[in-house]
Design goal:
The protein is mostly helical and 382 residues long. It has a single domain, classed as Growth Hormone, Chain: A (Up-down Bundle). The chain has 16 helices and no strands. The protein has helices spanning 2-30, 35-44, 47-63, 66-85, 89-114, 123-152, 154-162, 166-174, 194-198, 201-230, 235-254, 256-262, 265-282, 289-317, 323-352, 355-373. The radius of gyration is 19 Å and the shape is globular.
């Protein structure tokens, strides 16, 4: 029951957050923004998480999940309300900063608690369920954002999305008792550096692989609306393709628990990276919405299994009492990629067109797959 309530909050919070990326991108394009401007806006989402994710993880380990999760859900609501209150491109930078900063209080905390609910034997299942919640949100948020833009207007879309995180806010305010408590460690705990975690070989390789596959997810979320706009797709069609991608992540995560009983987290993560690499290289050669949706589904299968398995593996390898801190370091690495990739590939697309953007990211994924395939990571409980 506990994990299912957490999954519900994940789905609702991320519907608002995930939909915001589509709403921000298309509203900026509507205002005449360039590819580089869109890349900068998406990069702003990652600035604060890049700097503070580890500290957020340490906070969640120390005080428990309720406060950071509440900060996350309230912040997402505020970030979505800013563009309708203060229209224009300038406020989108503030909105992206608020959304990216606060949502990760929620996201990191969930990663830090999900693996321990029900014991280690349910770790992979829990992260698969959490991933399904985020996948459902990845379908609902972008799809409704596209529909709202086409039928109600760009600014109204932000108002529609802002309704989703309000339910988790109410749950956290009025019924927080279902959340796990902060883990109490015996004795005085010394000050510890996140670099200690980075020096653990298995964790380091997983952080890097997670960052690479997360960059693929992020690039698709930010760049496909640009590419779809270029080839003449409507906002609803763009939202639908993004929704198909999210549907694929949901489908693969539904089957992850039995898959995880047969294969280890590193094996599943590696396979997912290579599938995503193959899908990415196909995108720039097609303009038909149905074909692009099929490619997006394939990409969703790859990154959809990669993300939960990296979270599960990091949780399994984390030292006692430092699960959320490890999740924070993972988010730091991911957001370093989120910060660099949109600006780099937005500039690349502006200068050279769409093909180099997709092909170069495919090559980056192949490098991550090779890194994981050569690693020998011992997973506790396996």
């Amino acid at each position: 029951m506990v994990i299912h309530l957490i999954v519900l909050m994940c789905a609702l919070s991320h519907s608002g957050f995930g939909g915001s990326r589509v709403a921000v991108s298309l509203y900026a394009l509507h205002q005449g923004a360039s590819q580089l401007t869109i890349g900068l806006l998406m990069a702003v989402y990652s600035i604060v998480p890049l700097l503070l994710a580890v500290q957020v993880g340490k906070l969640a380990d120390r005080v428990g999940p309720r406060m950071p999760m509440l900060i996350g859900t309230v912040g997402v609501t505020i970030g979505l309300l800013l563009p309708p209150l203060f229209p224009g491109i300038a406020v989108l930078y503030v909105s992206a900063l608020v959304l990216g900063s606060t949502f990760h209080f929620f996201f990191i905390t969930v990663q830090g608690i999900a693996g321990g609910i029900g014991g280690s034997e349910h770790r992979a299942r829990n992260f698969a369920l959490v991933g399904m919640g985020f996948s459902a949100a990845g379908f609902i948020g972008p799809f409704l954002a596209g529909l709202a833009i086409d039928h109600l207007g760009h600014l109204a879309a932000f108002l529609v999305l802002s309704a989703f995180p309000l339910v988790p806010v109410l749950m956290l305010v009025f019924m927080p008792g279902f959340l796990p408590k902060a883990r109490k460690l015996s004795g005085a705990q010394p000050q510890r550096s996140a670099f200690e975690l980075w020096r653990v070989g298995g964790l380091r390789r997983t952080f890097i692989a997670s960052g690479i596959i997360s960059s693929a997810w992020d690039l698709f979320q930010f760049y496909f609306p640009v590419y779809g706009h270029h080839v003449g797709l409507s906002a609803s069609a763009i939202g639908a393709v993004l929704g198909v991608f999210a549907l694929a992540t949901f489908v693969i995560r539904f089957f992850l628990p039995p898959i995880a009983r047969r294969f280890s987290e590193p094996q599943i993560l590696t396979a997912g990276i290579f599938v995503a690499a193959f899908a990415f290289v196909l995108f720039p050669f097609f303009a038909n919405g149905y074909v692009l949706a099929a490619i997006a589904f394939l990409l969703g299968l790859g990154v959809g299994c990669g993300q939960p398995m990296s979270m599960s593996l990091i949780y399994a390898l984390a030292p006692p009492g430092r699960a959320a801190e490890c999740a924070g370091l993972r988010v730091t690495v991911n957001n370093l990629m989120h910060l660099l990739i949109p600006v780099l590939f937005g500039s690349l697309g502006t200068a050279f067109g769409y093909v180099p953007v997709f092909v170069s990211n495919s090559a980056l994924l192949v490098a991550g797959g090779v890194l994981m395939s050569k690693a020998r990571i011992a997973v506790p409980g396996k």
